[in-house]
Design goal:
Number of helices of chain A: 30
Distance between the termini of chain A: 45 Å
Oligomer: heterotrimer
Shape of chain B: globular
Helix content of chain B: over 70%
Largest sheet of chain A: 9 strands, mixed
CATH class of chain B: Mainly Alpha
CATH topology of chain B: Formate dehydrogenase/DMSO reductase fold
Shape of chain A: globular
Number of strands of chain A: 17
Order of helices and strands of chain B: HHHHHHHHHHHHHH
Strand content of chain B: under 5%
Structural class of chain B: mainly alpha
Number of domains of chain B: 1
Radius of gyration of chain A: 28 Å
Strand content of chain A: 5-15%
Largest sheet of chain B: none
Helix content of chain A: 25-40%
Number of helices of chain B: 14
Chains: A alpha+beta (about 700), B mainly alpha (about 375), C alpha+beta (about 300)
Radius of gyration of chain B: 21 Å
Chain lengths: ~700, ~375, ~300
Amino acid sequence: MKSKRWTGVKSKIYALTILSALSFSFFFSVSNGNAANVNKALKQDKPENWVASDQNAAMERSQERVPLIINVKMEKPGERRNRLIGVLSMKDSEHRYFLLNSPIIKKDNDLYGPVRFMHNKHMIVSGDCTTCHHYRPEGNNTSETVRCRACHQEAFHPDIPERTGLKAAYHLKCLGCHKAVKKGPVNCTGCHAKNVPDHGKLVQLTGKPKPSDVTKECLRCHQSSAEGLSTSAHWLWRGPSINTRGREKEISNGKATNTMNNFCIALSNNWPRCTSCHAGYGWKDKNFDFSDRTQMDCLVCHDTTGTYNKTPQDAGMPDPSVDLIKVAQNVGKPSRQNCGDCHFEGGGGDSVKHADMNSTLFWPNRNCDVHMGGYDFNCHECHKTQNHHIRGRSTSLPVAEGGFTCEACHTENPHSGNELLDYHLNKHTQTIACNTCHAPLYAKCKPTKTFWDWSKAGDKKRKPQKDKYGKDDYLWKKGEFRWKESAKPEYAWFNGNVERYLLGDTIESMNHLKITAPVGNFRDPQSKIHPFKVMRGVQPVDPNTRLLLAPHLYGKGGYWKTLDWDKSFKSGMTSVGLKYSGEYTWISTEMYWLINHEVTPKNMALSCATCHTSFKEALNHPLNQSVRTCNRCHQDNRDINFEKLVEQGIDFQLLQQRGRDSQSLIDSTDYINFKALGYKGDPIIYGGRFKKLPLGWKQ
Amino acid sequence: MSHNPYPLQKKFFTPGVYVMLVFMLAGGVTILARFIGGIGYVSNLTNLYPWGLWIGIDVASGVALAAGGFTTAALAHIMGKHQYEPIIRPALLTAALGYTFVVLGLLVDIGRTWAIWKPMIYWNPNSVLFEVAMCVMIYLNVLYIEFIPIVTQQFKSRFRLLGVLEEHLDKIMWIFIVAGVVLSCMHQSSLGSLMLIAPTKVHPLWYTPILPLLFLVSAIAVGYPMVIFETTLITSSMNLDAEMDTLTPLSKISIYLLGLYMILKIGDMIVRGTYIYLFDFTAQSNAFLCEMGLGGVVPWIMLCFEKIRQSRKGLFIISCLIIFGVLINRINVFIVGFKPFYSTTSYFPAIGEILVTSGLIATLMFIYRLAVTWLPVLSAKAKKGGV
Amino acid sequence: MTLSRRNFFGIMAGTGSMILGRTKKATAWESKAPDNPYACLVDLTRCVGCRKCEEACNQANHLPPPDISFDDKRVFDTKRRPDDSRYTVVNRYYGGKKNEQDELLPTFVKIQCMHCQDPSCVSACIVGALTKKDNGAVHYDVSKCIGCRYCMVACPFEIPAYEYHNPMTPQVRKCTFCFEKISKTGGRPACASVCPMEAITFGPRKKLLDIANKRIHENPGKYVHTIYGEKEMGGTSWMYLSAEPFESLGFQKLPLAPPPKLTETIQHSLFSFLWSPILLYSVLSGVMCLKNKDDKGGSHES
């Protein structure tokens, strides 16, 4: 697609004028009948029985007190290392994960939250237990390794004044090593989040303050936060698009200006409704003043009471019934509640738009998302934030404020559990994104929209049918839909860049348009296989100008009032400053949505056999000795069940029994479709993309 | 020889007095500001420069220049040189007023003015400042007692009781006179010890263990020039006889006193080897050269000439130079030579500080004039055509 | 004025001989330093400049909130000094050490009251508002203070700060060594307990000297072989270890003798038991008596 660009001085004015485009879809309601309910906050209170199992276990361990070891066996570091090489290994690690949160540290000061410590990862990276376990207790039958707090406890112990306390032991060891190897965080918030002080007394508000009064009060101390937010994507809804091919140097692409999708299409002239998810107050038309920092909405992200709500269709203003003072006095770090309230509801309802984000992530099961469910991650722990610029990229939007990868935490060689499999799995990471195996399904628990045909809209007489998930297949305002739950992703090579259609670009083929598509191919070493939700739709296009049309839907003169497409396009396109010839037709479109969340633990990841047909065959024909699994290369004389090894992982049958829509996937193999990705077939048989070595296979 | 002090009873309000009143008013307003806004509001004092003009001039220089009181008392009363008695009373008045204003200056300078009595209860005998404070306090009282006869002489005809007091006081006056000299010697020298606690801050040109001795000798040396200075000033401004017959012999003593001071100072410099700093041409070295040359060597040479000593003008210039030398010495020790290691700026007094100091000096002069006008202080005869 | 010669000589002989005999003993100056007070050892090689100590100090002493937040590293662009709103500050120095990339490495230096063993301020204080406690703290008692600021003149580390904008009840403000806290068993100063790197080690002074010597001994290439504060100005309760020469980190090269030694020696040798004033008094009275004996009863007024 070629971009037809409005140029010159006007472009800047337009850029602001066109604030409409993108978020239309993002925040639109699914049904029309009870619009008031639709945008009601999604937030959910924590269910009583919800426990983040791994986190909970680690927290309990962190609270244990162990008797102090006064005397240690003094050994020279080199001697100790030599003595223990080959004696200690990964198997000696009882726990993979620790929380550093001992009450010993919190005795005098409680400034920071617990530190997540990935013990196994550090074992792999350092490769030397004695780096941290530098001494052992005195005596003959003592353990070679003990917990840090066995020796290091309170600081300035009168009997062992030269030994540092636990807090300093951690910091000296961690920082010392991180600095020495130039890896790992060296600043405070790189490891632990600062506790938010109680704002109950700090916030000086009385009476019934206006939302902007609250913001002013926040800014009294947090000037620099406003400074940061003022240039951020959450405030401007636009920004630099370094990952959009051909637009790497542009700085003003985004929902506010020119992004489109095949849900609600664009922001064009639909402000008050779309901007009810804006982190600001009163973006009701193109004249919104982005330099007025008192209109920033601090509370929507920092509320911890769960009582803060924005009124739907009121341009981001809070519900008048919200007790703003109470909310302001209870601000804190954003939780899944704060982020999810908008982001789980993309496209106008729970789970509609994003394949991998919906309200189940508020309190997810460990198998649903291991980070949030097992370890109680909050969004900002991965989407690290600096000056209110939030790290992370999506394929659906061009704005990027920094990115991160799984490898940043898990390293390039993340598999450390089963030694036999590790080597092979770690080799996979050069070709395959983590989520290809670790998110084998998307929309696991809630159906998401996968198809939307706008051309069918306008028939008030047509009766919506319920599909198997109980979802309507039609709405006169919007057209025809299809939904899917526990969907199998589509796989594609992706190197991090996105091919993107933006408002005003000219369409080359009028038959079909990819609004977003991943960039990457089989031959590109930077590309890895990634899972995608592909959203398909039918939407309006101008056959003369060859531009996708941005309709005016909501409010006075919008399609939902007039049912007149022509008027709707005229109004919508005028509002974004583009030409509309007066003719329109329909085009089928596709959008690729990268699946980043709903990361499963290893027991729910794809098994080897789900993709590798050669393994599946061996499993299906256990008596045929010519079909082989690992023994294709390895001599099968070890006490290991190779069959079991290649089969361990996600079980679609079990999922189906638990009520998921995974029937069609049972017993599947070649899951990621090797041929479609450019392979000749199963790489075990035909070789990988760069190595042409068939593994022990004869025709 | 006989002398008869008498109130001048001259016209009081002259243009000069009005100028004094203006300074007094300005000083008063500034003092008010200090007690409303704090010391920081009117001064340039900082954590690194905690002492400034108020201590350097009001206190240190004030005490030094009030030395005329005890030196003349020692000369006339103790040494029995009765020919100098005519200058005792003006010197005593200067001393009493001087010390009064040392205390007033302190009241402005110390942070908790209302707590100034506390050193009487809480003693720290290790503190040099404690000793200075005690001496100044007692000496001030001694000075007032010594001053009583001047008042009683004037008013005893009106109040009989005063006459009785005068008689009784006269019998024990020797106790106070000797005490005055002793106390003066003590705190004049201790004033020099004050800065010995800060060896790293005071410039080596001034920091010497014999600083207390130097302070004492210089105070004694400046005593007579101070008497000469003020007598000359007041007699000329009041149009009186110059009393040269008293002043010229007085100046002869200064040759030895100033000489001793110079020998001590130069000797100390040589012994400690601090002459290496002499020609740095920093503010400190310049100030030191100025102090030694203009305020020490030049007047000493001038003193050696009989002719200059006998001329009223010459004597006045000599005494001015000596006073200048001692004044600048005190300023140097307390202000110019005070260079804290961590200071990035240097101290210069704020307008507020200058106004307070000048206001206090104006008040001092005002009261002096008031006293000589209405009390029997001066003995000088009016010039022809005088009163 | 009358003075009998007999009386006078009697007084002079009596007091003079009595006092002269006793002064010799009083002149030898003795340190009043506590034997083994609490102390802090600051290992500058450990400090990362997080300024948590400043924050903890601010809270422990209920000081006003800072102009620039404690997280803001821009404060290191200037060299700060403790003042009435902050009892401790951390400054950044580039002492000259470089990393492999040839970039200068910062050294962070915490400054606060050094709690000298023989403090100049304590010796100087006119009313004894400042005292050296047995637990090591140089303690300020505002109820005695008159605000003369002689302590500030005296302090060789230039630490005490003054509330110059308080018109009537200004105080001298400086690190308290968290006196109240360390007076209780198990208590430690706020800054030491918060320090994430244990750059500040708190304990008995002798023990800390052992630790410091041990660290130097075990890492001879890491540290300069001096413990700043061990001997400076007669020793201090806060001591420093450094990887770089102290002079390049804003430390002043200081004499080893405590300044009170000189002043107190002068004071006491001159004034103990007031021998010299009494002697001088006696001599002067004698001279006065002799010189005025011709004047019939010593009366000088005619």
